[in-house]
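Is it possible to get an amino acid sequence alongside its tokenized fold?
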Amino acid sequence: MISFVATPIGNLKDISLRAIEALKGADVIFCEDTRHSIKLLNAYDIKKPLQACHKFNEREAAQRIIEAAKEGKEVAVISDAGMPVISDPGNIVCAQLKEAGISYTVIPGANAFLSALVLSAMPADRFAFIGFLPDKAGAKKQLLTKYKDLDMTLCFHCAPQDVDRDICAMYSVFGDRCACAVREITKIHEQAIPFTLSRGLEGEKRGEYVLLVEGAKERGNELNSLSEKEHILHYMRGGMDKKDAIKQAAKDRGVSKSDLYKYSIDL
């Protein structure tokens, strides 16, 4: 069996009993960085063969995982922290396992952006996880533009050296919005710092960040700033007959059709 195992995002005590069981029972563990993962494994006295599975060798690692599974071996796949695949290597492995008809399971656990969403106290009834933004400024703004009008909290991962540039790009695309920067999640110096995009995030940037940005506010219908007659004419000029134009304008303005009829008599 192949298991994608979530690992702690900071506090080593956040590992689950199932995760420990899976790692202890594995014949081989594929991890993002063997030097990083060995610290977690040593903390729980787990000594297993480690093989690398990172963004530069994921396709080749996927084939080795498939071969191990076909040999009947127990395989665990982990990333440096949190859930594999989510802003971490593993998605290509999943796709190739599906293509090969090999089943796998997930052992859930710690997740940085969900923890940050709770710590931020921003609306969590609906949210969109965007992850890391592209490095190049043009690609960064192009991606942000896709989410400009979403009326829900937006969640981003951000390396410390990119925080100021990313916030600047968000402000240029979104305009001024409330936001929150969350860092050191589950650790002693855990912080959730509210700020606005126009002012930016003050202070030295250290550690990985999750940036939460409020969603777009609902815009009023710009046609409602027209006079009643011009509003009806707008739709008639677009090809509607007068009856349908009155109906649509009334819907825009939140009034009855009879309230607008008098403005259309001479049209």
Notes: DSSP finds ten helices and ten strands in the chain. The first helix runs from residue 17 to 25. The mean pLDDT is 92.
